[in-house]
Design a protein that fits this description.
Helices cover about 60% and strands about 0% of the residues. The chain has three helices and no strands. One of its GO terms (molecular function) is transmembrane receptor protein tyrosine kinase activity.
Length: about 70
Amino acid sequence: MAPRQTVAEVEKGYRLPNPSSSGHRCPDDLYNLMLKCWDARPENRPTFRSLNDVLEHWSSHTETQYLDN
């Protein structure tokens, strides 16, 4: 895809699909968080503080899952 076409697609709202569908592991919660960061309206995007909180919680939760196995 050419750079101009990429910009046009992103401006129209296109986002890459969740890579989980191609065999890579990306939890839906993490993918949806990424989508929120791309919201066209800045007031709808998460703040850095809220991103940090969510990612720290997610990180500690997934770390616990690995330790439990």
